[in-house]
# Entry
Amino acid sequence: MSETKLSVRLFKQLLFELREGKFANSKILPKEEELAQHLKVSRTALRDVLKTLEQEGYILRVKKKGTIINKRVLDLNFRIDIDYEFKDLLELAGLSHTSKVISYEEITADPYIAKQLELKEGQPLIKLEKVIYSNRKPVIYCIDYLNLEQFPTKPEADNFKEMDIFSLLESLSGEVMDFNITKLIPALPDKSTAKLFKSTGPLLSIEEVGFTRNLKAILFARIFWNSDFFDFHLVRKRFLG
# Structure
């Protein structure tokens, strides 16, 4: 198992233990040696995950007190300050999910999308629309825009059904997304999204541009979250000098 996959698995496992498992009623985590034995991992792997949990506010490591479990943050199912994939976001909240590609087409970049992806207006794009369901209810509507020319071989619609967008990018184009820049946008549903979500209430909406480590823009997305289902929170940590 790769270090990345191990870290993701261990992160999910420990988060489950904090919320529902062995440490659900604890205030402080055991010492690293005991915790590593319980999780059957090395202390090095454990330290990396504890560092991530601390950065995201789930735990607080305090001198002479140990590793304190932050119940207030653990009780937040959906956080807008952490960039989980859809499936991870729902799984971490203990929810099942399915996805469906509802549209796949080739278009050309209009001025706005061309600017986001740092392309010339009129360049060929792939436009992909998909819906994420939880408990058979549509909860996320996503429109992805990809530069068609970044793929040596043109992807087919079935490629997007078989793997998530990030795996597809890496597999078919060799591009790996390293970070996103996300813009929050107030939105009301149009006729199609109102019909999809069966609601005329406001939506949680974002626009997102994904970049490689070399600062190359490889993905532009418009994402709409069903506000009847999602209740997002933001955890802000102070940087103390």
